[in-house]
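Inputs:
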Amino acid sequence: MSHPHPPTRTKLLDAALAEIRTNGYSATTIDHLCARAGVTKGAFFHHFKSKEALGIAAATYWSDVTSPMFAQSAYHSLPDPRARIMAYLDLREALLAGEIAEFSCLAGTLLQEVHASSPTITAAAYAAITTHAETLEPDFAAAIAEHLPPDCPTAASLALHCQTVLQGAFILAKGTGNAAIAQDSLNHLRRYLTLLFPLPEEPKS
Amino acid sequence: MSHPHPPTRTKLLDAALAEIRTNGYSATTIDHLCARAGVTKGAFFHHFKSKEALGIAAATYWSDVTSPMFAQSAYHSLPDPRARIMAYLDLREALLAGEIAEFSCLAGTLLQEVHASSPTITAAAYAAITTHAETLEPDFAAAIAEHLPPDCPTAASLALHCQTVLQGAFILAKGTGNAAIAQDSLNHLRRYLTLLFPLPEEPKS
DNA sequence: GCCAACATACCAACCAGTTGGTATGTTGGC
DNA sequence: GCCAACATACCAACTGGTTGGTATGTTGGC
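Outputs:
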């Protein structure tokens, strides 16, 4: 669990995120990975026993890298849980910048490709998504408690639905080459949640 | 545009759909494809000049195979456009059966992998999605015309959002190994559209 | 007898993974 | 405080199998 030697292993994991998000897992070769990371293949197989082990480590690393970005965000201090959820979606929209490989989800890309061939990578990638979704559950639970809509879905289901929309948005964005279509679906998600938990009024400033 | 020799070419395209939906495009090899189709590699390269050409043909074939399934469905005859949209989602949910490779979307799988490496496959796969989405636009347009909600999104945007949710649902289903999580997101989509275009009452039977 | 539709045989490049090695610590007995 | 024994981190070169693609048949209908 301890990785006392950050540089080479981290360089390989960073290269893996970039390569897999751009070209996918299958099309990512260890040679390209090492070239991008600036190390040799011997170094790779010193740190990872196989390509599959790298896939698992990349999914875990993806969680480790992205989680603090959301955990440290200021929106958690908003008093209204519905406002916290909207602020989360605002943050997700703000992250839709740059090239597609820079904002798309590594875990979703992995799931798409390895679901039938590697149960271990599948489990690690799915865990990355559900672990992130679970950070939204308290806010949804609070919104339900404060403003229970009729036939209310569970907090867990709502949190996962947000991830579903985001994953789908990334795919459509890959079709157009830009994030506009993803923003569009995020607006639909916002509208859904606003209809489900109507905000009493627009807070000013 | 004319394919006067159905059997071998069709066998290869059917094999391509199955292989790509299971293992993805990159992990699909021409040798495996030919073995599954029961033909030799010479036959493959007689019909497709490259693997990329097969990818493009597979996306087009995917449209050709799936379009009639929706076009021939009975839900188009329902009088209420909102009921037609709900019936479309019911049909999509009914299709969530069997193995994941049997209900997931070829176009989404292709987009995920080739968006950065093959503009031609990307365009063909995206066209398959948008062409299908366009078949929903008349119903959304009618729903908007009959029941314009405040700050109404466009029919085209709503039709694409349905595809976004479906694509995301397929990815999450690949994480769990079954369709339950996809059905959950379809229910959220139904709830969104119901809130947006509230049905006056439950029609009986 | 010609051509589309296949089949067979083959290739150069590439792939994940291995091997044998070096350089640089680290540790524990004395 | 020194050194043998060991561990870690990394590298260059290689291997056996696979890959997309090609070159060269063969065959059957018109």
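Remarks. DSSP finds eleven helices and no strands in chain B. Residues 5, 8, 39-43, 46-47 of chain B lie near DNA strand C (CB under 10 Å from a C1').
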